[in-house]
Specification:
Shape: elongated
Distance between the termini: 90 Å
Oligomer: single chain
Helix content: 25-40%
Number of strands: 24
Structural class: alpha+beta
Radius of gyration: 56 Å
CATH topology of the largest domain: Nucleotidyltransferase, domain 5
Strand content: 15-25%
Number of domains: 4
Number of helices: 16
Strand order of the largest sheet: 3-2-1-4-8
CATH architecture of the largest domain: 2-Layer Sandwich
CATH class of the largest domain: Alpha Beta
Length: 642
């Protein structure tokens, strides 16, 4: 259930209420009130009180009341009907009726109060200076409070009176509604009196009189040079008891009660002698001042009614902090000719307040309750949050910069997209984008064009294969397929079709490049390569015998090598080292000896006794051959380096 907070700045007391429920059955959840501090700016006092109320637990949408005494009210007859048409012209029309202000520096709103002559519309226009309203909104914003709407306190008073049934027609003795007549609603405050005239449920006029009950206290305080609280206490005592009030007050208060000593240390705690004086406020004096206020009130009300030309009153409702001031009821009865009834909204609102709170606050909360009732229904008020003072939610505040950011982002995305498209087009050109010349001949750019250059592809002896039974895949089929496929797939398609041609030709010829055939010639070629690599180190080696066995599982190559002369054993180590390295080569046909008990590199010494007497040795080397090996490895080149 939605909750609403109504903030009534008041004259001397800030009233804040929290409501929920419905318009006809509202419930008062919380109430908060704070007296205005004379030393602090009014806007700051209202903001602080609202912040305190929220900190105490109030929740909901905040609706602020603005004093009608700060607004300029004018009644206009406009030759238009419909709110939209009226809104377009009302500010320009009221400009000539407002003196002392520039209408551009004011928030202007209107309320229809009936039909005029010749199909015109009569409107009540309210114009509020932006300066004061901006000051109040700024103070609330500084206190982290953001009112969603601002209405005049007089419109809130009208809504509160409507909610409690103040405008329901009376009935005669037979139960029939009496003829329509005016209803007056007044709030007698400390420094202002708000007056509303309502015909049935239609607002006729409203006015704010700049006088209030606080003038009695202020006059007594001025006469006797008293603080405001003492003057109010004296007026209350004299009014209730009818006797004089005597008390003593300080002749002169210290200029700075919390002052420190000359050295700037902590404030002095010693008592200060203060000269006292006696003050006597007489009951006759209070009665005289109050009578003067009542006479001014009666005079202003008579003058207002004479200006409106309205006199047929059926009911008068009164509320406000000074409505219970002695003599007010009699003045209102004399002016309106009807005995007034107190408008106590707490009698019509569900609440949990005790009797003392009801007695103290019931006649003070009408405006605050009326403000909180706005979203729940009832008469529509003024909207003072317009133009540069309009309420903006979080999204509304960032909407414009967010729109700019989105525009910049879209522009950046557009530029980036164009850049990427240009890069893609460049890549397509590099790979092989399709090209059609003036005669309709199809060609390709880039790598595809380089690969297809010449007539090799068009010759069926080179490029043609049976892709399906009885159907040959030729150059024209490849060209059509390349055109139909995306550019990035064209090189892959060409590779796949060439693979198809190779497979087809291998199948027809029976020759496959991956077939492995062990070859004795390949073994001998590799043996020759080994001997060629170490020939210089062996120094004129002599191979006396070669035995190659390629049968069975134990295939081997055995050769006898004769070395003679000084250092023949050292020279034989070059051959041994080369053979050990050969075993580790992946494409070698020779297998590293597995049987460690068999001597694969045997030595047999000899001496040339007949001729040279030179010593030497026969080396018998047995190399095992792998079961399978590639026949055309490095040895197939005949020892040539690739």
């Amino acid at each position: 259930m939605a909750r609403i907070i109504g903030v009534d700045p008041g004259d001397t007391l800030v009233k804040i209420v929290e409501l929920d429920g419905s318009y006809r059955k509202p419930r008062l959840v919380r109430v908060h009130s704070e007296a205005a501090t004379p030393a602090a700016p009014r806007a700051v006092t209202v903001a602080a009180a609202t912040r305190n109320a929220i900190d105490d637990g109030m929740k909901g949408e905040v609706r602020l009341g603005h004093p009608c005494r700060e607004a300029v009210l004018r009644t206009l007859d406009l030759p238009f009907k419909g709110k939209d048409a009226l809104r377009k012209v009302v500010k320009a029309e009221v400009e000539g009726e407002i003196h002392g202000y520039s209408v551009d520096d004011m928030v202007v709103d209107f309320h229809e109060i009936g039909g005029g002559l010749d199909d015109s519309t009569r409107v009540l226009v309210a114009a509020v200076p932006k300066e004061g309203l901006r000051s109040q909104l700024g103070a609330l914003e500084a206190a982290a409070v953001e009112p969603e709407s601002v209405d005049l306190d007089t419109m809130a008073l009208w809504r509160a009176a409507d909610c409690v049934g103040a405008f329901e027609p009376d009935e005669d003795d037979d139960g029939n509604p009496e003829p329509s007549a005016l209803t007056a609603v007044l709030e007698v405050g400390s420094r202002s009196v708000k007056v509303l005239l309502v015909d049935g449920d239609q607002l006729v006029d409203m006015r704010v009189l700049r006088l209030g009950g606080a003038s009695v206290t202020e006059e007594i305080a001025k006469r006797h040079t008293l603080p405001g609280d003492l003057a109010a206490e004296a007026v209350q005592v004299c009014s209730e008891s009818g006797t004089d009030c005597e008390f003593e007050v300080a002749s002169e208060l210290p200029a700075n009660p919390g002052a420190s000593d000359d050295d700037g240390d902590a404030p002095l705690d010693e008592p200060v002698d203060v000269e006292m004086r006696s003050v006597t406020v007489t009951a006759a004096e209070v009665e005289s001042v109050r009578s003067g206020f009542l006479r001014r009130l009666a005079r202003e009300l008579f003058r207002y009614l004479a200006a409106t030309g309205k006199s047929n009153m059926r009911a008068v409702w009164v509320t406000g902090g000074s409505c219970r001031l002695a003599g007010v009821q009699q003045v209102l009865t004399e002016v309106f000719g009807v005995e007034p009834r107190e408008l106590n909204v707490l009698d019509h609102v569900q609440h949990d307040l005790d009797e003392d709170d009801v007695q103290d606050l019931g006649h003070r909360l009408a405006v605050a309750v009326g403000l909180a009732l706005g979203p729940l229904g009832g008469p529509e008020g003024f909207d003072m949050r317009q133009e540069d003072l309009a309420f903006t939610r979080g999204f509304e505040r960032i909407k414009f910069p967010l729109t700019i950011m989105l525009m910049v982002g879209l522009l950046a995305l557009f530029v980036f997209g164009n850049h990427q498209q240009a890069k893609l087009n460049h890549l397509h050109l590099e790979i092989g984008k399709t090209h059609v010349d003036e005669r309709g001949k199809i060609g390709f750019f880039g790598m595809v064009n380089s690969a297809l250059r010449g007539n090799w592809w068009k010759d069926q002896r080179n490029f043609a294969y049976e892709r399906s039974k009885g159907k040959m895949y030729k150059w024209k089929d490849l060209e059509d397929e390349l055109v139909s496929k995306p550019v990035h797939e064209r090189l892959k398609i060409m590779h796949a079709r060439l693979k198809g041609v190779a497979d087809y030709k291998q199948k027809r010829s029976g020759i496959y490049e991956e077939v492995s055939l062990e070859s004795g010639a390949a073994v001998l070629v590799r043996f020759a390569e080994i001997m060629q690599r170490v020939e210089s180190e062996l120094q004129r080696p002599l191979v006396t015998k070669i035995s190659l066995n390629m049968k069975g599982e134990r295939r081997s190559l055995t050769f006898h090598l004769a070395l003679r002369g000084a250092g023949f054993r050292g020279r034989s180590e070059a051959l041994r080292t080369e053979l050990l390295a050969e075993f580790k080569r992946e494409d070698s046909p020779f297998l590293e000896p597995q049987n460690t008990r068999r001597v694969w590199f045997a030595e047999k010494l000899f001496i040339d006794q007949a001729e040279t007497k030179v010593e030497g040795s026969y080396f018998v080397v047995t190399l095992d051959i792998k079961p399978t090996f590639a026949p055309f490895g490095e040895g197939a080149s005949g020892g040539r380096k690739k």
